[in-house]
Amino acid sequence: MKARKSYRIHSACLALFGLALFSPLHAFAEIRVVPESMEEVQLSFSPVVKRVAPAVVNVYTKRIIQTRPTMRDDPFFDFFFGRNRMSPPRQRIQNSLGSGVIVRSDGLIVTNNHVIQGGDQYTVVLTDRREFDAELVLADERTDLAVLRIDTKGEELPSLSFADSDQAEVGDLVLAIGDPFGVGQTVTSGIVSAVARTQVGISDFQFFIQTDAAINPGNSGGALVNMTGDLVGINSAIFSRSGGSNGIGFAIPANMVRSVVKSAVTGGAIVRPWLGIKGQVVTSDLAESLGLDRPVGVLVNSLHSSSPALEAGLREGDVILAVDEFDVFDPTSLNYRVATKAVGDRIELSYLRTKSMQKASVELVAPPEDPPRDLTELTGNHPLSGVTLANLSPAFAEEMGFDWLQEGAVVVGTARNSAASRLGLKPGDILLSINDREVATVRQAKTALGKNRSRWAISIRRGDRTLSVTVRG
Length: 473
Hints:
6-stranded antiparallel beta barrel
């Protein structure tokens, strides 16, 4: 029986992208001409590399790991201190290497979030071997991007400009620059193999540029550049069964990177525009019933009461086909198109309603915090003692990664060894009722728990399931 091949997505410090040399076959049928200059003899990416390579840096992340106390097994310590003495906790330093890209000459650097995640200290090393301590300006786990800053003392560093990644096409020549396996800065070449990859499973906003350039551990956070030397994307992951490059790599598009860097520059937290729509992929069967000639678009299943799309005229059952003339094929690509915009921007949605094409101009808004979150840790003599509750709103749900269509009082966390932790409550659980009394807000939960009882009946919703438990006081 043949061994089953298994492939994995690797996002542990990679690099990307490439080139393919193209020689027209019809040239052999033409009259050969003697080259008149070195440029006609030699095809090289050297001019591009010389211009962009100084803007690609190494990022070293240092983590301080506290080890647990252990039992000593040493006759010397046994003699003076007795047996079974515990050794003191120790610190262990863990270092990791990734790559980064200077995107502003004053020392602003973008890399992958997984390169710096959990780090205590960050060091940036330039191509001329100068080292700088770096501070973390912004980390965004949902896009797997992070922004660092180094103090250049007024010196302007080489930096890369953002390309419009929406203009990248399959077949475009690209170069990937990073530090694979820590061997030193390396340039690989290839082509754009695909665009708008959404079923990769790396981050919340999956919309990747795929390339066949070699990407390996150490290249994460490095640059994917086009032939004009502009930044097309940040190398992020590979598809591999061995951990090495198999010619399938993924980069976060520059347009997404630009939006995260903009938030870092303004010094605020990332506030992504909110459309207030939940939808599903249009399957072949759905496409046929909707009068589409192919499965494309997002079928709107529900709209929040505060949705700007609802205000613009969209309804349940509409099929969103494009955003600003860019086709959307699933909810992920729709979310990406919205996430690369800013609050206050207007987008044009093309949608199908009862086999009729329509358009709507939608002004994007920030997710509303209605009701206020009212973050509260419950205390007292009851089974929910030690749980932290909050009111769900689109803003809080977006912040915590919860489903913003849900309403009610949500469990944010539980104190260790508390009554709530022993009850088995988990972050994301929605409190439904206490002693058969419906609970929709934190305030209602506090009121229901305000009286001492000998018996507690509690119901919660966890995902698609409703769970109930009875506890004796």
